[in-house]
Structures
1.
Amino acid sequence: MSGVAIDKKVKAERGQAQSARGAAVADRKARAKKAAILQYGRIAVQILFFLFAPELFSQAFGAIKEIFTSMGNAAVIQASAFVTKLVILCFATILCGRIFCGWACAFGAVGDWIFQIVQFVLKKLKIKPFRISLKLVPYLQKIKYIILILLLLLCFRQQNAMITKYSPWTPFSLWTAGNFKTAGLEAAIILFLLIVVGMGIHERFFCQFLCPMGAVFSLLPELPFFALKRKKEECIPNCQACRMQCPVKIRLDESPFADGECIRCGRCTAGCPKKNIGLRHK
Ligand code: SF4
Ligand code: SF4
Ligand code: SF4
């Protein structure tokens, strides 16, 4: 091959490589934009629920406490307003997955905001953030079931006052309702502050590891219509992008998408370089 022909070939290859790089950059930007729109939309919805219905999660768990207290008393379970809200939230979870946790729960939203603020500050200060080992996460996620069982036993034994006294939700619910009472709630406030620290260190710390309401939601079955699906065989080899973006670190290569931990935040869908996660796949 002549020198001129070789030059042409090299130029053509360079041109192809450049346009491939350009396409990859454009694709990355488009994905980042889609992810940002989704996350801003989620924050907007979270703010609305925080302002207008911050008590939903504690009322839903209040209904569970009511049910177990009635059972412990051998009394009839009343269809109270709390029980109605619980039924609606459970129905929504069965239909669409834990969309309430990802988009509407005030406590989960506060956890998201604290985490984002702490990570932003650490980045500005050039401090490496602490990470809980990914291997440990699935084990820690089981703690919430133990907490749920203990709380149900306490309700069954008519110990609701004790739960209220120690529950970190008590000060949060009072404060979001504009009541800044602290007397008698010292233990609950300390627990709440410890949880705030955890929320800053690990994304969805409380939701994943400690929340009894999250434990209930994660145990509910999910109808398949709104379950996220992925074509595993079309994945990029060794790609972990979806797991690394997942706030609850679901191993998509191991778990089915009906994983009870999924809070339907949509980050994996928006961030997949192959647009390989969605509702449509079989
Ligand atoms: S896991 Fe609990 S605190 Fe977290 S979003 Fe769900 S209900 Fe709210
Ligand atoms: S990000 Fe997409 S391509 Fe990568 S593992 Fe997840 S689904 Fe597969
Ligand atoms: S699997 Fe996807 S939608 Fe579910 S929590 Fe993880 S990133 Fe969010």
Note: The radius of gyration is 23 Å.
2.
Amino acid sequence: MKDRNRRQKKGPAASGAAHASDRARPAASAKAPAKPEMKGGPKHPGPARTLAKTRNVAADTARTRPQKVVEQPSEPPRPVRVHAGDKPTERVPVILETAGTDDYRLIDSGDGEKLEQYGPYRIVRPEAQALWPRSLPAHVWDRADAVFTGDTDEDGMGRWRFPGAALGETWPMRLLETDFYGRFTAFRHVGVFPEQLAHWSWMKARIEAAGRPLKVLNLFGYTGVASLVAARAGTEVTHVDASKKAIGWARENQALGRGEKLPIRWICEDAMKFILREERRGSRYDIILADPPKFGRGPNGEVWQLFEGLPLMLDICREILSPKDAALVLTAYSIRASFYSIHELVRETMRGRGGLVESGELVIREGGLDGSVAGRALSTSLFSRWTS
Ligand SMILES: C[S@@+](CC[C@H](N)C(=O)[O-])C[C@H]1O[C@@H](n2cnc3c(N)ncnc32)[C@H](O)[C@@H]1O
């Protein structure tokens, strides 16, 4: 994910005060190690690399005040346990596809860009994986309401341009009966990652079929759409994100849908710190969603690096999952890895707990202007899902 520490040179044209001030050092974002892969490399690298382009969230959710940066502890908080017992059964590859809805659709893609419908707006953004030509004619693309322009390089900055009327920073949207704001944020994001709909509708169905109240933990929860979907479906939700700004946006989404009474705990904390405490307390969750960036920072400068932190994070999740009827849904993006890397890690982590691990990719399929076309599939991320 590009939400590492990059200096923000310019903000989005669409930004109001919130964005103008959010150019300070990213908080939830992370400091990427100064690896050459971050700076150079081919323009169209492999899929794992290009996934990074889709998720520079932390810059969007940067806090305005300088953060206290703590040293990364040299020792992990606890060792990763090696578990005995059989591995869960497996199903691979599984491709989870998000088709369009009235409020979201991938209309077309090609020539390194994608054209999407978000509520009332058609939006064009860079998409390095769209290597193929566009299907729809130029005049359709030219009528877009918002275009994210700028450097398409992984480290690149950009800004929103509105070819017609100037647009406000936010607009109301509704997916899975849940209201939230679409939002022109810095670095091309729009406040929701629609490929997650595949996970969210699966989770909603599971909650509704449970026949008992469940507890959901949403780690790296961003603007809270998954938390709101889960709470509306009848669960108690604990939502954790390191960015105060993202938590603020999540609360705005909650208010938009008049969901103030929904049982959601909004927690601004480092995800690892939070789950370690939950493990010590003996807390249990029936469903854990985790969508960690490659690099991130906790509110107190805690460093999250996926390749270092994921084995321990999953191991702790294992401990805080309910003993029966539990599920863990992991998404990974912007990593140079195959889904097998997270698949095998989840299977090792869940040894002795039975169940099934399904892994693969989350893709979004082009639907054309009215959703009637079954176009090409655009890959967005890798996932692995364990169910007991
Ligand atoms: C890609 S977003 C997750 C999107 C979410 N799954 C969704 O679809 O709405 C990643 C989030 O991780 C948060 N984050 C980064 N580092 C973190 C850390 N150390 N602890 C908790 N959250 C962190 C960022 O603030 C950001 O909101």
Note: Residues 28, 55, 57-58, 61, 193, 196, 220, 222-223, 225-226, 240-243, 246, 270-271, 291, 293, 296-298, 302, 304 surround S-adenosylmethionine (CB under 6 Å).
